[in-house]
Amino acid sequence: MSTDVVRIRTGVYHDSVSLMRVSQALTALPGVEVAVVAMATELNRDIATELGFDLPQTGPADLLIALRSSGPDVLESADAELERLLTGLAGRTTGATAAERPPRTVRAAARGHGATLALVSVPGPYAFAEAMDAVEAGLSVMIFSDNVPVEQEVLLKRRAGELDVLVMGPDCGTAVIGGVGLGFANVLRPGPVGVVAASGTGAQQVTCLLDLAGVGVSHVLGVGGRDLSADVGALSTLRALEALDADPATELIILISKPPAPEVADVVREAVSKLVTPVVTALLGPGQGDLTAAAETALRTLGVPIPAWPSWPSTVPSPPDATRLPGDSAASDASGTSAAFGVPDSSGPPGPPGALETFAASGSPGSPGASDASDSPGSPGRTLRGIYSGGTLCVEARLIAGTGEFTDFGDDAYTRGRPHPMIDPSLRLEALAEVPPGAVVLLDVVLGHGADPDPSVRLAPAITAAVARGVPVVVVLVGSSGDPQGLNAQAEALHAAGATVFTSNARAAGYAADVVANTL
User: Which biological process annotations from GO are given for this protein (predicted)?
Assistant: First the structure.
């Protein structure tokens, strides 16, 4: 008979990634059936309750410990290991001399180290104070934290404008400053392309495609997914565009955004028209194309051949009119419209300096995290299930596929007190296990520093199980040739598990939609 124990510790905080590793280490112990060590946020409480634990009243600043073991003896050894692991976390900053201890405030760090940039990664309710401290110290700041109120974001960005510094974020997942990656960062070669992105995974998709074509970046400036909203008004986007326009190492700018407010998009277009540096703009929204098309336009602008995007396709043959696999250019009809995606053909010559090349996909998700396009055409009885870690990739895939149910597990609602799904795939694995036979799964795997060091280890068995019960799995693998996980190794492992693997999210979404429609 299993033995459960639940403990609550107040006044103890550790970051979600560290606690995830503690949970994994305890779960690996012989006789331990379940281990949940996490901050007692609403989401983590729900998970523990669903696992059958009876929880006392807690607050989100409490540490929740829930263990289930095969008996009291196992529980005793698990307790000892738990204490050892938690003591190790607490001991990171104890026992050092005053000179060795890390500074306690951002301003102290700036004074002691001559920094010009701060990275803030704390729970959302505490991010504003730390970020404002950085701005007031004259530092540009990248705010990795999510769950930050938009009113605080606006205050930060307005103050940053007054002090001539840049705020990247909140919820800024990736940035590359002078070749140094921050947050979820792919290993990118240096090159002539500067990126301004109100979209972390959108930036990763485009820059990884450029890398696969042999083109590098000067800087990638994330601005946070809400920057082009009506509330924020592109405050950081406009500053970032000016900075890259003045950068001698940047020959081409790519602007990437989740669906912007129309009036804000107009302001951005006006600003772009005044720049000297040419701009390719990939805005998801009504009317036009996708991130892959934007990357290909950038390559044409630079005079670089568009490569065959790597893919590990299904052995099932495609019909002549099916969506092409990566590497096959989508055919264009006589009007210059891509037959596969219904977007303007961009094969013509690049525009003059400052010209705006706009690519957009139709629509936006109807609710945070999850969206349903199941009223779109598809074969009776077969559905598409999108299980994503990247919000922009999720939006793009839904718009291109035009059918199915999509969930962005990187949305704020799923990350309160939990590691991002690019680090911990647990919630996505649960969702994959629940997909019924006959459905088609479309999911993303994003490589790079900060992400799961070997995602195929946990994903491959889940994919094999899904395929075995009659669920085709299509994967978009976002990564560069230099990423530590190994792009080819991950692709081969996922393909061997039964997945069809693409490096273009747009192509993956089109392919998955064709599978649903029984054209493949």
Answer: tricarboxylic acid cycle
3-state DSSP of 435-461: CCCCCEEEEEEECCECCCCCCHHHHHH
Indicate whether 196 pLDDT > 90: yes
More confident residue, 312 or 378: 312
Neighbour-count burial for 298-311, b at 16+ CB within 10 Å, e otherwise: bbbbbeeebeebbb
The pLDDT confidence band at residue 380, using thresholds 50, 70 and 90, is low
Phi, psi of 36 (to 5 degrees): -120, 110
Report the alpha-carbon distance of residue 23 to residue 56 in Å, rounded: 20
Q: What percent of the chain has pLDDT over 70?
A: 83
Summarised one tens digit per residue, pLDDT across range 230-264 is 999 999 999 999 999 999 999 999 999 988 999 99
Q: Enumerate the β-bridge partners of residue 7.
A: 65
Q: Which domains, ranges and CATH numbers included, belong to the chain?
A: 3-90 (3.30.70), 106-302 (3.40.50.261), 383-518 (3.40.50.261)
Kindly report, residue by residue over 153-194, the tens digit of the pLDDT: 999 999 999 999 999 999 999 999 989 999 999 999 999 999
User: 425-441, pLDDT tens digit by residue?
Assistant: 999 999 999 999 999 99
> Assign residue 369 a region: left if phi > 0, alpha if psi is -120 to 50, beta otherwise?
left
pTM summary value: 0.79
Cα dihedral 249, 250, 256, 261 in deg (nearest 10): 120
Three-state secondary structure call for residue 244: helix
Q: Which long-range contacts (CB under 8 A, 24 or more apart) does 318-323 make?
A: 318/514, 318/520, 319/519, 319/520, 321/519, 322/511, 322/514, 322/519, 322/520, 323/507, 323/510, 323/511, 323/513, 323/514
- Calculate the CA 509 to chain-centre distance: 17
